[in-house]
Amino acid sequence: MDRSSPTTLPTAVQIGGLRIEPNLVLAPMEGVTDLSFRRMVRHIGGVGLTCTEFVPSAALHRGDNKFTRMVEFDADERPISIQLYGKDPEEMAAGARVVQELGADICDINMGCPSKKVCNNSGGSALMREPELVRDIVRAVVAAVDIPVTVKMRSGFDAENRNAPEIAWIAQEEGAQWVAIHWRTREDKYKGERAVDKIAETKAKLSIPVLANGDVIDIESARAMFEDTGCDGLLIGRGAIRNPWLPLQISQWQQGLPITVVNAEERERVMLAYFDSISAVFGRSEKGALGRFKMLANQYSRGLPAGVQFKKKVLHSLSGEEAREHVAEYFEKLRRHEQGERAVFEGYKAKEWVRKKKTG
Ligand SMILES: Cc1cc2nc3c(=O)[nH]c(=O)nc-3n(C[C@H](O)[C@H](O)[C@H](O)COP(=O)(O)O)c2cc1C
Asked: Are residues 206 and 114 in the same domain?
């Protein structure tokens, strides 16, 4: 494994007066990248930009409380991007004005969401089938605000229509300041074989920065994405749920610094800090906070010794208190395991752990 730091790969993206450094962006994820999650990743470090979950432009414009809360950010969360979705250019422009009023640094337009809810209304990735509508939306949004407007898309709608370079070109012509491309098509949803050619093609064609996205889960995949596409930066999504230290580790690699190794104590501290933060946000709704905590635990436990058993215990917890007990019990064992007490996880035969041991 070659972990030598890159000397020729970019480490920052400049758009107008805004410098994103490191050029690593926490990708927007509905139900995940709320204030608490973004706070967790930001406090660990390594992200140059965070992005809210997407919100419907019309609802944001109407002042719908639910969505206004979804785009709240800390005063020191800078730079921050708020992502909008919708298909009506005037409504998108109105939503973008609210984004600017709220003080965001960037307004991002979603053209990548594969969900039926969004696509049936011609929003999200369905927009990639309507280039003229893309033109109208980007034009209207760019005209409505002074802050940079960016666009996030997939490589296309399906295998026959991988038109990201054309859609990105339109976005550039209408004043978008960067495009971010997830290599999958809408049809791929979250599966499909890695094919980053359309990102590379777009990068070769455009003069604005092109950010690449999809399955960056470690330093090796980050390096491969930079090298295979020539991209200007990366968006990191699920990899940061599984390992919130991932952006930090990639940025350390970029700078040739030692890579942070995370021990059990730190893992537990970060996990509980997230739980405290999410509990404060949800207030009296213990169920809401527990749901988010389970989402984190589901990914966070991957690849850890006996992580599958730990995950199951947290997922089956009926209260926050019970979940915290499982956290305390598991990390106590993990600490002992790290100190050489291998027997502590003896008998765990979870597939994931067995597979890990086999492959070393
Ligand atoms: C749970 C979840 C929610 C997502 N929500 C959004 C969203 O609100 N806006 C968006 O543009 N993409 C959304 N995405 C897509 C991610 O931003 C990203 O493009 C995708 O997960 C691929 O990157 P990754 O392999 O690094 O996760 C979501 C993905 C996941 C897994």
From this structure: yes
Task: Kindly state whether residue 107 falls inside one of the protein's structural domains.
Answer: yes
Residue located nearest, by CA, to atom 2 of ligand 1: 29
Question: What is the Å distance from ligand 1's center to 329 Cα?
Answer: 32
Pocket test for ligand 1, best of 29, 83, 119, 299 (most atoms within 8 A of CB): 29
DSSP 61-87: HHT-HHHHHHT---TT--SEEEEEE-S
* Single pTM value for the model: 0.93
Task: Give dist(CA 112, CA 119) in Å, integer.
Answer: 9
Evaluate: CB of 214 within 6 angstroms of ligand 1: yes
| Residue that finishes a domain, picked among 228, 255, 282 | 255
Please give the tally of structural domains in the chain. Answer: 2
pLDDT in tens, 239-253: 999 999 999 999 999
For residue 195, how far is its CA from the centre of ligand 1 (angstroms)?
A: 17
| Catalytic residue ranges | 113
Q: How confident is the model at residue 357 (pLDDT cuts 50, 70, 90)?
A: very low
